[in-house]
Every structure is written in C-alpha cells, then in structure tokens.
Write a structure and sequence with these properties.
heterodimer, A: 130 residues, B: three-stranded antiparallel beta sheet, three-stranded antiparallel beta sheet, 12 strands
Chain lengths: 130, 388
Amino acid sequence: MRPQAAVAAKVFIQRDYTNGTVCQFQTKFPSELETRIDKQQFEETVRMLNNLYAEAEKLGSQSYIEGCLACLTAYTVFLCMETHYEKILKKIAKYIQEQNDKIYAPRGLLLTDPIERGLRVDVRERGMVC
Amino acid sequence: MSAVMITRKVRKWEKLPGKNTFCCDGRVMMARQKGVFYLTLFLIIGTCSLFFAFECPYLAVHLSPAIPVFAALLFLFVMAMLLRTSFSDPGVLPRALPEEATFIEMEIEAANGNVPAGQRPPPRIRNVQINNQIVKLKYCYTCKIFRPPRASHCSICDNCVDRFDHHCPWVGNCVGKRNYRYFYLFTLSLSLLTIYIFTFDIVHVVMREYPVSHLCSQKEQTGFTVLEVLVCFFTLWSVVGLTGFHTYLISLNQTTNEDIKGSWSGKNRVQNPYSHKNIIKNCCEVLCGPTYPSVLDRRGLMQDDSLVSATCAAPSSSSSSNATPQTTKTTAPLIPNEHTPDDAKPSIAASAEKSPSPKEELPPALKLPPLASPETDAETSIAKDKTH
C-alpha cells in the first residue's frame, strides 16, 4: 500500500497597488481554484482582509494621537502598549483561522497569513492526500 | 557514505540572508559596518558629558537650574531616537521562498513569450497603475521578487527595504519605512541639542569674560568649552542642513532615493503618486502614521537540519533516501550569489551533492521550470523527495 503523502501546490494572490503602498490584495479569482471554491466566497474573504488592512493603515485621529503620544514619551509607551496595527494583525490572524476552519479546510485548501510571507502575497496551499 | 542529519531549533534571525548583524538574540538589527555609528555615539556622549561637567554647574548657579535639566531631557531623547533608528528593522522585505520564486519566473516567461535564441530577454519590469499614474516595478535578482513601489535594494545590507530612503553609516543601518520617523526625530532633536549647547557655551564664555554678578569672576579653564564650540559648530552645519532637507522631503512625501534618482521631477516624468498634495497631510502621514510591524520574524523558532559528516562524491539512491527530515526552513533559502555569506555555501553544496537523481523522478505536474541558479533546483528537489 502506498504511504500517504501530502503534495502541496501553491496559488499566490498578489498585492494590489492601485491605491498606493497600502496593503491590499487583488480580488481577481485565480483560475486554479475554479473547481475548488466558489468565486463569491473567495472574493468575500479577500475583500474582508483588504478592509482589515485598510483599517490598520488608516490615517485618522486615532493614529495621529497614538503617534504624538508615542513621540512625547520617546516611543517608550510601546513597551507597555500594543500598537493599533498589532491589534488589527491579531484580528486578521483570527479571521484567517476562522475562514480556514469553516470554509477552506473542508475543501482541502489552506489560507496562509500574509504576515508570514512579508505582506507580499497571500498563499493558498492546495493539499492533496493521495 | 553516511550522512547524519542533526535537527536543532534555532531562531530565524540566525538563518536570514543579507549582511546584517544581530544582537540580543535577534532583538537588535544593524548593518555590518558599525565604526561610524560608534563615532556618532562618541561625539554625542562626549560633547554632552563635557557640557554637563563643565558648563552646567556654572550655568545652573548663575542663570537657572532649568538649563541642565532641559539639556538632559533633550540628550536622552536624542539617544533614544538614535538607538531606535539604529537597532530597528528598517522594513526589510524577506526574500522569496522557492515556490514563490518559481511562480514569479513562470509568470515572467509567460509574459515574455518565446524569445528567439541569441536575443536578450526583455528587462523584468511590471507596470502598475497607482493613483492614475504608471509606476514601474523592478525585479530584484537577489531577492527574486518584484519590488513593491518605493522599495529598493540596499547593496550594503544586501536586502530589499520598503520605502527605502538611504543607508546611513552614522546610524549604522538603512533608513526605511519603519525607522524613518525615528531618524527624522533624531536629526531634529540633535539639531536642537547642538544649537542649545552651542548657545550656552557662548553664553558661558561671555559671562566669564564680562561678569555681571558680584560673584567670583575667575577666568577658569575654558579649554573644554572651546572644544565643545568647535564640535557643535561643525555638527550644526551638517545636521541642521540634513534636518532641513528631510523636512522638505517629508512635506512632499518623497524619499531621498527618489529625490536623488529624480523619479518625480522633470517634465516627462510621472508626478509623485504618493503625495497627498497637502503639506500637513504629508507630514502627518510620515511622522504620525501607523507604526508598521516587522515582517521579518527574527525571533521565531525554526528547525535547522545540518549535515554532520559529508557524503562521498557519487551519490546513490540509497544515500538520497537517508535524507529523511525535509528541510523545513520557513525563511528565504540561502541562494548562493556573490552576496551569500561564505559559511552558507558548504551546506548548500552538500545538499546539492546528494540529490541530482530525484529530478527525473518528479511527476510531470511538479516539473520545475529552470530557475536562476542550479542550487535552488537542488533544494526544491529535496523538498519533493519526501513524496517518494
């Protein structure tokens, strides 16, 4: 009997730079996943991730207050406080975990957290067990 | 004939390519050449020590005790900003892992089509539209990625850095997205500190020459004062000038790198697509924007498989089956090029010796297109070896 072996093939979802250097991913549906997952589902996931990253990098009063306060304390305040971006990254990790458990793992797919790949690509591994 | 694989847990920073030095178990990240950084530290600490030792007692008594207190606060702020700039990750982009590099190569080849033999393939450039302007993304042959907009490869540190400004030898590190604001605050506060010390040195000398109070007016040694004045005078021109230059860049949301290359200037050039066209907004974004996380997981743990004894020159299929643990490196592979540290090369050579044969056993679906360097092929074929 042939021993089980996992063959992981990867699909890379590229960054979308149309709005500048803000972290956004392309919602274009990769052709390799056509048979594996619903297009709407995929686009919904990527759109939600994009929203979360946009919230992390938003230039609003909260980020300004955080920046000024940190500057006044010579950035020592971050020794005891988490930055806004870090809080959102935790939210993103949780969301990806949740999506993997509910939607992607049952279809034999795995969504990788972009922070592990340098916020460059969002890797989708296709695990096939033979 | 036997090769013993030893697996041990190491921190990821130990296996990062590039020419950085790490201290405090990966918490501190700097460039290799630190000589000028030590000079900076010496000049700042030395001048301030002389000021606190020789000027401050006199000024505190004859003018106000607030003078040394404010100087001390300013000095602490300057040191904090300097150390923060020097020790933090400037925004290094990790190199592409083999699968990503392969994927990108495949995309490039698909885009180029068939290049006739003997002709040079077209340069690897990707055009993206940013805020209705066309920006060209260049391919980095060292890191095997298309650089994001505003990123550049620093040849001194051998890394691609996001929003690369410049490599500053005075702080011993690159200045990029993550530490630009600390660098700017360092130059700004150092300008203020230099002006402050310079001013009070002059005040001190004048007060000693022309005493205004009935208190003792002995002309004590002012040699150290003269030394401080000299250091401050020469520092002033460079640091204040640099602060002014960076203030100008920030107001336009440009980097030093873009300014030097003239990316956004000139008649036929693209206008800066990153600028908000509003000075206040540009300053707020650069100085008070969100603090970006480091994408280099320096202190994460990973498995390190290393061969203890070398295999013989002609590998057989039995020796390739001994390679049971798969290289589970999750950081970028040590792709040998002219920049790879020499100690990395023997481990790659050893793994390349082991496995020329598994290439033919690869199923057609996993056949790898030719990559930039043959050693990368060897590493990926070790990964695929596990399937057989």
